[in-house]
Amino acid sequence: MAASKKVKSLPRADIEAIFARFHQIEPEPKGELDYSNAFTLLVAVVLSAQATDVGVNKATKSLFQLAPDPAAMVALGQEQIEQHVRTIGLFRTKAKNVFLLSQQLLDLHGGEVPQTREALEALPGVGRKTANVVLNIFFKQPAIAVDTHLFRVSNRTGMAPANTPLAVEQILLKVIPAQYMLHAHHWLILHGRYICKARKPECWRCPIAQWCRFTPKTPMPSVPAKAH
After folding, report:
1. 3-state secondary structure of 138
2. What is the pLDDT of residues 119-171, one digit of tens each?
3. Going by C-beta distance under 8 Å and a sequence separation of 6 or more, which residues neighbour residue 114?
4. How many other CB atoms are found less than 10 A from the CB of residue 157?
């Protein structure tokens, strides 16, 4: 994951204007993974690596009905977990991690999901990005989980031009206004997923195009003439 084109950093006033626009359009953005508690959110995020949220939701619907907590997940067993998530890429490794992290939650945390990044990252299959998602979404902490969408948007716009996800995260934590920090993660990811797409960003309908450094802007597709 490397920045394809280094751009000049946006001034703070433009960054504030961008988030003010995001807030105006959707004051409380929501993630697209289905979950019912901190544990099911954690498992869903672990399963979502290199997979779509839609695909994860289909797989976890029956899994979470049977195992909504660590004890039930351990009782289900790794082989049964595999059967539920086999439609997801790398399902065997992910099922193993889900089983092991569930056991570790029971052994070390009384069956509760910890609320610190360090404790979360110590769980099998949980990296910094996954930990940040759980901290931000469930525990309402001002964390930024830099996935491919957020990395792309941060570099293209000039909001946080950097060559690594960690560098992007550190810049964003400094430049995003405090009043927008809680929802910044969702706004940026959803913007990258649906508008600032990897192959062809839809600049013609982008609500923050006036501040974005990306050039040349993608024009509106031409409408084919109707046959007479």
Report:
1. coil
2. 999 999 999 999 999 999 999 999 999 999 999 999 999 999 999 999 999 99
3. 120
4. 25
Residue-wise pLDDT for 89-131, tens only, equals: 999 999 999 999 999 999 999 999 999 999 999 999 999 999 9
DSSP classification of residue 114:
P
| pLDDT on residue 4 | 47
Q: Can you read off the two tokens belonging to residue 198?
A: 């990897």
* Inter-CA distances, 15 with 67, 68, 141, 212, Å: 42, 39, 21, 9
pLDDT number for residue 71:
98
The pTM of this model reads 0.88
167: three-class secondary structure by DSSP: helix
Question: For residue 127, what are the contacts with CB-CB under 8 A and spacing of at least 6?
Answer: 121
In 3D, which of 118, 121, 125, 165 has the Cα closest to residue 146? 165
**Selection from 181, 221, 224, 174 nearest residue 23 by Cα:** 181
Residue 215: partners with Cβ closer than 8 Å, 6 or more residues away = none
Residues classed as catalytic: 129, 147
Contacts of 13 (CB under 8 A, 6+ apart): none
Tokens of 17: 């204007």
